[in-house]
Amino acid sequence: MDNNAMQAVILRIEKSSIYDGDGLRTVVFLKGCNLNCLWCSTPESQDRRVEMGFDATRCEHCGSCLDICPEQAISRDPLGAVVIDKNRCKRCKRCHDICPYQAFISYGRLMSMDDVLGEVLKDDVFYYYSGGGLTVSGGEPLLYADFVAELLKRCRDNSVNTAIETSFCLSWLQVKKVLPYLDTLFVDLKHSDSASHERLTGLGNDLVLANIMLADMAPQNFDIIIRLPLIPGSNDSEDNLRQTAALCVSLKKLRGLQLLPYHRLGSATYAKLGRDYALQDLSPPTEAYMAEKREIIRRFYPDLPLI
User: pTM of the entire structure?
Assistant: First the structure.
């Protein structure tokens, strides 16, 4: 395929992020993920297709959407509320375009390589002065390994620093395509035990662990940052912290281990997608909790950098 004709479904592009790598960064979120984490904060990123959501709090029950849908996927329930049949919906977005109250939300759009790169390069002056650059995220960006590799390469050709955020739960054939064009590799390790990883995410961690070791042995020069999203009661035990830290200290390319506190920022999106949120009753941890978890790691691995 002509690289200029390459396309991917992009969830969104965020500018001036300070949480996804060094300096000010543009973060390109690709749509689609092969995991189904119980705590996923971006459920709209899981489906690879363009997806329709509905914000019932915006709906004024005007009925303009009922007749516009060619698949008859929109109806009312017995109480008069709008209901969307996801199985019928073909994502034509006519409801989105006609709604005067913006109650329909379109998640994702198909973008070309040139369009994505153009958005990234708009802020190259900020990258230069802040030490920032591009971070590719998701969903799982390596589901689009060819697209991502080309995007990273073009950014490198334009002297833009590059990073990727991945679960690494894919084949090595996909992973190795992007390594020549990376400055920083962020890997989420949800749990060190494979059975627990599968219970929490839908898949085991065998590929994750194997890819981490292979990436660490790869000839390319890049930093590895291991991320552990701390979910109280799920993966925050002393045993899991110790095993995760033990893996980290074995890596030659490691810059550090980053503990990410559980948050509920995406929980409202589940309702917009007509889905239930599995951790509805779980509260975000306190700073004292996070300090306690860091101290556990420092007790056993005092020289391990915690980011």
Answer: 0.94
